[in-house]
Amino acid sequence: MRLQQEVVEQVAKSTTHELSGIETADCEDAVGEWLEDHGIDGGWDIAPTFVEGGIDTDWLERISAVADELASKSLEGAIRWLYYTVEIELLLNQIAEASNRISSLVADAKQYSQMDRAPFQVANVHDLLRSTLVMFADRLSKDGKEAKAIRVVKELDQSLPEIPCYAGDLNQVWTNIIDNALAAMRDQGGTLTIRTCREGENMVRVEICDTGPGIPDDVREHIFEPFFTTKPFGEGTGLGLDLAFNIVVKNHRGDLRVESVPGDTRFIVLLPLELSPAVDEAAPEE
After folding, report:
1. Domain region containing 224
2. Final residue in a domain of this structure, among 47, 71, 102
3. Which of 18-22, 37-41, 102-106, 177-181 is predicted least confidently?
4. How far apart (Å, rounded) are the C-alpha atoms in residues 27 and 5?
5. Residue 268 within a domain
């Protein structure tokens, strides 16, 4: 029973997930050979679970020694008992991790939708950007190794203060701009860069950049017009950037502009650190 508790503690602090594939295979081979040498049936099937739980050959020697001390005639019984302990603990860990991920996703969804907040509030712009990126998780690749993958780079000024804003509306701005950026890089992949900094004394600057083919001059002068779109029929309404412009400029007294050359398109959003009382009290324009 004492050894079983120690095995539980070992599983909890196991660092085998940090091992490379080759290192993991070597450990499984060593454990499998030990089990086979000691006459454990199905030892090679047990080995991966033991290794995942951090149980190596040194641990198996300890188990064997305890079995000898207790004059046990069944080392295999002890091994299988502890194997089930490891298996159960690993399953419990997976359940806990899954629960944490679900809680995190729910929190991000609430942050994105702002469904439990007042329309106007003081918010951290980085939290709003992060929750929006979560909504695009299926279209993004963290490691950039997949074909035509899109890598995300964040260059965030953590010293920025919170800003007064209509948080849910700003999330719609980020959504529309990021959606266009991902569409621009859909065929060739690329890098999505989110950058924040201070602009002068009283503005926050947010840049959403992509490495797509760029926006031609004749298109760029019309992109904020309602119903203007370059997307194929049925893929765009032409209202996304018009809505973003109204939210930033009319509702927040900020500025929205675009700079674009092939390989570097930047949507720049400027938001004031303070809003006048007239803006504070007004309802967002639809």
Report:
1. 121-281
2. 102
3. 102-106
4. 22
5. yes
